[in-house]
User: Fold these one by one.
Assistant:
Number 1:
Amino acid sequence: MSSVFPHRPTPTLERLATPCLVLERGKLARNLIRMSAALSMRGVALRPHLKTAKCVEIARLAAAKPPGPITVSTLREAEYFAHHGWKDIFYAVGLGPGKLDRVVALLRAGVRLVTLVDHPDAAAAIAACAKREAVRFRTVIEIDCGEHRGGIAPGSAALVTIAQMLGANFAGVATHGGQSYGERTKEGFAQVAEAEVTALRTAALRLHAAGFTSEIRSLGSSPTALVGVDLAGVTELRAGVYMFGDAFQAGIGACSLNDIALSVLAEVIGRPAARPNEFLVDAGAFALSKDISTAALPAEQNAGYGWVCNLAGERLPGLRMTRVWQEHGLVVSTTPLPSDAFRIGDRVRILPNHACPTAAAHDRYFVVAGSNEIVGEWTRVNGW
């Protein structure tokens, strides 16, 4: 394969500065195809959530061409993707008045930005801004389908009030079954998916009866996206972490360990002589995050701070990262390690518990395709 870095030899995993983020292109592609094909067969548009990937190269693979609809979680992401040609963007976090000026700038630049509210005061601020700036927002009302993070109940009296306050700026309804991450079986995922669909349909029907047509009826989470519930009436599905997978997703059955496309490359920097079953690596809390979500899973699925793999990305049985400091990570083996294993300077890859905060610590992906050779270097947009 030709070098993606002209004028110098193609780098390999053995030569990269550590810690850094490694992305398996083949696994990413397989995950994207699986989701796209499943939704296409069900007649529902995919609006991939780029909150984890935050990368234009990945967006080009995940979203339809010409640039199809996408979801973001920060206005920084919206501005970044708009700069790269995306015009249909859903900012899927409740919109506060302090961000209205940036939204107006995007709208005036031709971006068909979808915004989200769940309170009459937020709706009033949008309506006032739209009138003052002579722009039209596309705002959906967030519906709570059971997670109780944000949104209003589909039967809430505030539902129609918010739509009335939005007026011409009203565009539909959206929900997110985040409680799916508490499930452990396909049946559990299906129950949450049913709750998503029911909440969305109920809210849309109530609004329709009050004279408001929901152009957008949007739902989704990665664990519920692929279960076979009836999606009639749903216009689009948002999911994001399915692109990469992680140890927690594998632990709850939302993907397999072999689907995990993201890892952190680290170097062995310590072998305590008094503790022959331990070694230190140069990836700590700042490279991996302090997420220990797999601790809530059965013991055999508890990855500590991440599953330890060889350079090929194959999990090494018996090894678990049990502790992190700012720039150090401690790997412990269930049995003493041979003295010639994991020597100073050796390298490992660590599969993260939660891909989103792990990726957020890095500014780029080093892309591999079935070997140690780096075939791409894709930058990310971070911040807010």
Number 2:
Amino acid sequence: MTRKSLHHYSELNTYQFVTFRTQDSVDAYLLGINEILDLSIAERQMKIDEYCDLSNKGCYLTGEILTLMMSYIKKCEPEYYQLYAVSIMPNHVHLLVQQKQDLNVVMQKIKGATAFYINKHLSRKGHFWSKSYFDKAIRDEKHFNVVYEYIKNNAVKANLSDADLRFYGVYENLI
């Protein structure tokens, strides 16, 4: 099977919706979904997200690791991006950011550092994150709002008991 690498759009100050997942969550279903030619990229991503929300594969992002991830993602602001929303699901992460660095640099920073710490915490070695990630540049304010609400409600929709710990949104934290 030949796998195509997705082209990543990257332009400074662009608002981006980014999703990345643990390597162990990638299975035959996720690999096969890209072979369905009559699905748009958005439809494929929605099916992948729905599958990952229900899958138990690669679900390492809990407890201390969830706390570590949330802290690290916030720590990368404002040097790498302006963070608007993040949802850390058990086996994948959704981000809504305005990029301040090249998107490849942002993703290398997040995935590289967290993989090192998570692998150390779990006493494991090797790739922690899937090599690829999904990104979609935000087109307009309506698109921004739809993505923000999707991220905000992702853990709630999946009926996760710790949903309140899995989401950070800049608009929920204004006082």
Number 3:
Amino acid sequence: MNVPLDFTAIDFETANSSSASACSVGLIKVRDGRIVDRAGWLIQPPIGHDEFNEWNTRIHGITASDVIGAAGWAEQFPDLMAFAQDDHFVAHNAGFDMGVIRAACEATGLETPDFSYLCSLQVARKTYHLESYRLPVAAMAAGFEDFHHHDALADAEACAAIVVHAAKRHEASTLAELAAATSTRVSRIRPVREAVGPAA
């Protein structure tokens, strides 16, 4: 069964504990429940947020030398938004990824766009009965296995697989219907100065 879902799945890796320190991004475009495009690239984190923490590098394998010559956030953010167009974003533990967008825009003097997103982690918790809802475990429940976890593009594809599979299970044809079926919500990201309370 196909589901007529349209969205862009997104995943970031960061250089350190700063939300503004995005060092790579993966993007997966879904139309009618199928992947139609994908993109991913390295990012030079903004000055002041560009130190690579050994712990982070151990997780994703990206080092400071890897991003030499890569475009900075301010340079590549228009490409990110052009890829997403007017889509809702979906991300696993979306508060983290939306926080990266908000903080990196703030750090580089860009206006944070106002757009909607759904968290696949929250959806997975209301769809599957698992001991853990970490991305690899939830993705396996959705039938998406053996991917390179902490590769931003692979993680975005795993996230997309969870949302599509969950929508089929709940017979949801839109993200709003999926959110309603799983007692979650489609949230909105706003600029730091307008944000109230912690990220959803």
